[in-house]
TrEMBL record:
Residues 159-312, 321-513 form the Tectonic-1-3 domain. This is TECT1 protein. Signal peptide: none annotated. InterPro entries: TCTN1-3 (IPR040354), TCTN1-3_dom (IPR011677), TCTN1-3_N (IPR057724). It comes from Grus americana. One of its GO terms (cellular component) is MKS complex.
Length: 541
């Protein structure tokens, strides 16, 4: 009937505007503030980048495919142009299906909300609300002005995904870094869960130090991360000769000022520490400062910046990369909790010799005495082949079983890990990100000793770490796929009395790259099929 159609059209018009802008969606935009190869929708790419593309990896971007009518962003390349250009079109796409959504006018269906769990306090209220035959979750009114911000939403926190720039009240959280040269650029955004450490040079002078925003504490704490204010955690003052002093009070804002031909309280370093929840909400932000002074001879200063992240109610564990391992950082290891038939969760065990649950080997000492080197361990650093050892002096008073156990503890440590993290940022709850250590045993030549029966003693531990390049060819990440620990034993036989013998005990680590080569015909970088003029290199051959 006409009145029903009119009511339906009125109801459709009363709904809010679509919340998805397909022109701003880009699923292939993986790198922060960098152009992704063949990603035609990447806002970080310019015309020069597009001219090197060979194809558009994502040719069409749409919103919800269940809508009857929606916008679609079409991306393509005009290869006939010189240089090639990107073509962008925004069209209206019609869904031919009869069963489609005409309008997304139910605001609560646009996101998933956690249901309210019944408790002893709210049980009667929930029973009264949902016990009837029918109930409605329809909002009482629609907000027609989609551009106006609801005051109640001003204090809501933003849920971040990995790598997304951290928003502030005015723009984003800045982490200055060098771009082309060593000079600082304040346009580098801090990405969520991306641990960064940068150093750059800033031009300063005593006469204008009070007017340079980037050397003032206020420049780094003035903006809040949405509803979270940046607090000052600590302030360290550095003198002209490099001596540092920690101030007792950190609630005092120290601004640059000129004192006796010196400019004091200028920022030399900032370290941000962000606390977040498992849902990606930032709940706390703190900044630690290093302040210094310059004299009239100084024309520039070197500033250092750092940002780290810690999940709430968790103990911070040092990472060895994010996500892939970084060469020179320790390999992270863990243990399976007792009582589980399979690894449901891996806990980090903090030992006196292994504070951060790292894979370690025997540390060589100056006297090379194995019995005196017990407990000395050094972490295995990713990418570094290592070898260490000591010498064992066998006497007639030594017994086989205690000697064997002593050498095992010497080679493997008091508690050898069971698992190794495949990535530098693997979390303990992600079971599939942990690689079990495979143990092998071999035997070698015989050595005479004072034991009546044959005695097997371990003399070497060889650890082989196999890793591969994972992810994009442009930015590959190091991933550990296999770890093998091989114990080599020696059989000791009878030795004449009052005789001694010295044998070497060694530990070694070898890293093996097992990455597969690129497939034949695959081009990692776009190429241009062009012929140079015959005299291009004249007068050189």
């Amino acid at each position: 009937p006409p009145e029903i159609r009119a009511a339906t059209r009125a109801r459709t018009r009363s709904g809010p505007a679509p919340v998805t802008d397909v022109a701003k969606l880009c699923v292939c935009d993986l790198l922060v503030a960098q152009c992704d190869v063949n990603c035609c929708c990447d806002p970080d790419c310019n015309a020069a980048d597009f001219s090197l593309f060979t194809t558009c990896s994502v040719p069409i971007v749409t919103g919800d495919s269940r809508l009857c009518s929606q916008k679609a962003a079409i991306y393509s390349l005009d290869v006939e142009a010189n240089p090639p250009e990107r073509i962008f079109k925004l069209i209206d796409q019609v869904n031919p299906s009869v069963f489609c959504i005409h309008a997304t006018n139910y605001k609560q269906a646009l996101s998933f909300s956690s249901p309210e769990m019944p408790t002893s306090e709210n049980f009667d209220q929930l029973l009264k609300r949902f016990s009837s035959a029918t109930f409605s979750a329809e909002p009482d009114s629609w907000n027609m002005n989609t551009d106006a911000q609801n005051p109640s939403d001003a204090n809501e926190t933003y849920r971040y995904e990995y790598g997304v720039p951290i928003q502030t009240a005015d723009a984003f959280l800045r982490l200055p870094s060098p771009v082309v040269s060593s000079w600082c650029s304040d346009a580098n955004p801090a990405g969520f869960l991306v641990n960064q450490a940068t150093k750059c040079t800033r031009s300063v002078s005593v006469e204008n130090c009070g007017n340079i925003q980037a050397v003032s504490m206020l420049f780094y704490i003035n903006s809040s991360i949405l509803a979270v204010n940046i607090t000052v955690q600590s302030i360290v003052v550095q003198s002209l000769n490099g001596m540092r002093t920690l101030l007792n009070g950190s609630d005092v804002l120290r601004l640059p000022m000129i004192l006796d031909e010196l400019c004091i309280n200028i920022v030399l370093g900032v370290s941000y520490h962000i606390t977040y929840t498992g849902a990606g909400e930032i709940i706390e932000a703190a900044a630690s400062f290093v302040l210094g002074a310059i004299n009239k001879e100084a024309l520039s200063i070197q500033q250092s910046f750092e940002i780290s992240f810690t999940q709430v109610n968790t103990k911070p564990v040092p990472l060895s990369g994010n996500p892939g391992y970084v060469v020179g950082l320790p390999i992270r290891a863990g243990f399976r909790p007792q009582g589980y038939p399979f690894p449901i969760e891996i806990f980090f065990v903090a030992l006196n010799t292994n504070k951060y649950s790292q894979l370690t080997i025997l540390q060589s000492t100056s006297n090379q005495d194995c019995l005196a080197a017990q407990g000395a361990r050094t972490p295995i650093l990713f990418g570094y082949n290592m070898i260490s050892g000591c010498k064992l002096r066998i006497t007639a008073a030594m017994k086989c079983k205690p000697l064997t156990q002593t050498l095992l503890d010497l080679l493997k440590g008091q508690s050898f890990p069971e698992y190794v993290a495949s990535f530098g940022n693997s979390q303990s709850q992600d079971v599939l990100d942990w690689v079990p250590i495979t143990h092998l045993h071999t035997s070698e030549q015989r050595i005479y000793n004072t034991f009546q029966s044959s005695c097997h003693i371990p003399v070497s531990l060889e650890i082989e770490v196999k890793w591969t390049k994972y992810g994009s060819l442009v930015n590959p990440q190091a991933r550990i796929v296999n770890v093998t620990a091989s114990i080599t034993t020696t059989i000791l036989k009878q030795l004449p009395s009052r005789r001694e013998r010295t044998i070497p005990i060694t530990s070694s680590v070898v890293f093996t790259d097992i990455s597969s080569p690129a497939e034949p015909g695959y081009k990692a970088w776009p190429t241009i099929n062009a012929k140079l003029p015959f005299d291009f290199f004249f007068p050189f051959v």
